[in-house]
């Protein structure tokens, strides 16, 4: 079983990586700031519902538990600063704003795929 203090240290690292204060993180998780602080200090361990809210915040919960066992999370389980920033904008956006963000992302991916196909066609021609 992972120690509460190690869990708390990892949670604090994740919160800081996301650029959140304890109060902001607690609000996003739907808990009191004091409770968040107790998680970080290793006083309490969060319930399953709270862990689910951590996932919804972009925190890789498995890495919080895996750290003590020497298991390194894969590079794909960590999000980059740019991904974190984009996720922050998305979560703060209105429903219409979220639609626009998704539309732009899908359009950019489609355009990139088209450019790849055009580039491959020119190489074979």
UniProtKB/TrEMBL annotation:
Family matches, as CDD domains: HTH_XRE (cd00093)
Tagged with keyword DNA-binding: yes
Family annotation (SUPFAM superfamilies): lambda repressor-like DNA-binding domains
HTH cro/C1-type domain mapped to chain residues: 11-64
Signal peptide interval: none
PROSITE patterns from the UniProt entry: HTH_CROC1
The name this protein goes by in its record: DNA-binding phage protein
